[in-house]
Design a protein that fits this description.
Radius of gyration: 23 Å
Number of domains: 1
CATH architecture: Orthogonal Bundle
Largest sheet: 2 strands, antiparallel
Number of helices: 15
Strand content: under 5%
Order of helices and strands: HHHEEEEHHHHHHHHHHHH
Distance between the termini: 94 Å
CATH topology: Ammonium transporter fold
Helix content: 55-70%
Shape: globular
Number of strands: 4
Strand order of the largest sheet: 1-2
């Protein structure tokens, strides 16, 4: 009898403790999302800065890195002040979040978002805002004023990124419609690619574009940047499950597979056309495959990722090698060709290959749900239209505030490293 009494007493003591533990964050999920946040953070001031910096001309390398890093810093501050609430606050008409979490009001160390602390959820989402606006930079390096870029970044994150993030992930119309965007095909890549194209058209072509060679400053830096982006993308995609589970593992698998397939497809296409496989082509193919799998990562199986990566590498190569020349626009580092067009392909492919065996309820055309493809098309068109018009308005407001978007011709010819920052990336001492 005494032993039974002791067991009953111990059980009554432990039950409340177990209940309290169940109400707290899941430590495994939390640890994984902390790591994922750090991985995605690295993608902007390290991976993208090196990738874009190496692609820019030697006289603009530091300016490109500076603009990437300041975009990260600005978006980080905007996010904790008002960006998070605009994206994830209580929905206002399905268009934008309310001000219930302005300056992180109402959040504390005990706040939870699913099984993880809200603080780490908002930090994870913050890194997406940071890299999205930094991607826009790829379309306009070599010719935009640093001061104008700062103002543009503040306005674009606030009025373009946050609403689109709310549409897809914060309870907005796109998510309610059933659009599938696991990690940012519409929110990040289409949004940034279209925004970059509009801004590049507004700025106009670089001096000498199409008439003189504009060689990248360092393919080595670009290749290193691509490798860091690839590494960080595992946090980007697998972390978007917001849990350490089988879907996260699947997202990790298909992300790597699509990236590798994208690199091989770009390399092969280039090799067939130019007779030479370049390191730049391989690195660009990796990024194309990563972009395309982003919206689909939590919804497709390995065969789907192979198809997505294969098509992404081909689309990326021909958009850069052929389409840009045919249409005559000056997208400096091909943000539209790689992120915009491959992002569109990825969003469409999600509507084709989404497999309910990965995520229950996610069913694409090839699994008996043709309506999903139409939903994906609507989400693409909505994002593209909003980004195009919104970016144009934001850029024109920026122009009025800063007195112009573009540097003076003599500064552009001299190089923005020295003209805007008084620095040089390389010292040439002769041969």
């Amino acid at each position: 009898m005494k032993s039974k009494s002791f067991l009953w007493t111990a059980l009554m003591i432990l039950l409340p403790t177990a209940a309290m533990a169940a109400e707290g964050p899941d430590t495994g999920d939390t640890a994984w999302i902390i790591v994922s946040t750090a991985l995605v953070m690295m993608m902007t001031p390290a991976g993208l800065a090196l990738f874009y910096g190496g692609l820019s001309r030697y006289k603009n390398l530091l300016n490109t890195i500076a603009m990437t890093m300041v975009a990260y810093c600005l978006a980080s501050v905007i996010w904790v002040l008002w960006g998070y609430t605009l994206a994830f606050g209580t929905s206002v008409g399905g268009f934008v979040g309310g001000f219930d979490h302005i300056f992180l009001n109402g959040l504390s160390v005990s706040s939870l978002s699913g099984t993880i602390p809200t603080y780490i959820f908002l930090l994870f989402q913050m890194t997406f805002a940071c890299i999205t606006v930094a991607l826009v930079l790829g379309s306009i390096v070599d010719r935009m004023k640093f001061s104008a870029w700062i103002v543009f970044t503040i306005l674009w994150v606030t009025f373009i990124y946050c609403p689109v993030a709310h549409w897809a992930w914060g309870g907005g119309w796109m998510g309610e419609m059933g659009a599938l965007d696991f990690a940012g095909g519409t929110v990040v890549h289409i949004n940034a690619g279209i925004g970059g194209l509009v801004l590049s058209l507004l700025l106009g072509k670089r001096i000498g574009y199409g008439k003189e060679a504009m060689f990248p400053s360092s393919i080595t830096l670009t290749a290193l940047g691509a490798a860091l982006l690839w590494f960080g993308w595992f946090g980007f995609n697998a972390g978007s499950e917001l849990a350490a589970d089988g879907v996260a593992a699947s997202a990790f698998l298909v992300t790597n597979t699509s990236a590798a397939m994208g690199a091989l497809a770009w390399m092969t296409a280039e090799w067939m056309v130019t007779k030479k496989p370049t390191v730049l082509g391989i690195a660009s193919g990796v990024v194309s495959g990563l972009v395309a799998i982003t919206p689909a990562a939590g919804f497709v199986t390995m065969p789907g990722s192979l198809a997505i990566g294969l098509a992404a590498g081909i689309i990326g190569y021909f958009s850069v090698a052929k389409l840009k020349q045919m249409l005559g626009y000056d997208d400096s580092l091909d943000a539209f060709g790689v992120h915009g067009l491959c992002g569109i392909w990825g969003a469409l492919a999600t509507g084709l290959f989404a497999n309910p065996a990965v995520t229950e309820g996610a069913r694409g055309l090839f699994y008996g749900n043709p309506g999903q493809l139409w939903i994906q098309i609507v989400s693409i068109l909505g994002t593209a239209a909003f980004s195009a018009v919104g970016t144009l308005i934001v850029a024109l407001i920026t122009k009025m505030i800063t007195g112009g978007l573009r540097v003076e011709p003599e500064e552009e010819i001299e190089g923005l490293d020295n003209a805007q920052h008084g620095e040089r990336a390389f010292e040439f001492t002769g041969v």
